[in-house]
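Look over this entry.
=====
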Amino acid sequence: MFEIIEDEYNAFIEDMARGETFCRYIDESTYEDEFSHDDISIMQGQFIKKVRLWLHENKPGKYLVSGSWCVFVMTEEEAKKRNRHNYQRFLVN
């Protein structure tokens, strides 16, 4: 389980280095055959903590992070384009 978090986090770091503006991580459908939904939720929560810390230290105010059936990481501009309501509450400062 923790290996998946690290693998997804490394993918996130690579995406940030490429300047990605919209990404999905720890997609529930990818892991639901192997893990319970509770375990997937735990993985997503741990991943979100790591990502929020990295964004806070490296790109404050530029990205937001939200969880659902996957973890979304996107810029404020992407959130506006995708009509994400109340996205400001997910912005990492």
Q: What stands out?
A: The mean pLDDT is 95. The longest strand covers residues 63-67. The first helix runs from residue 2 to 17.
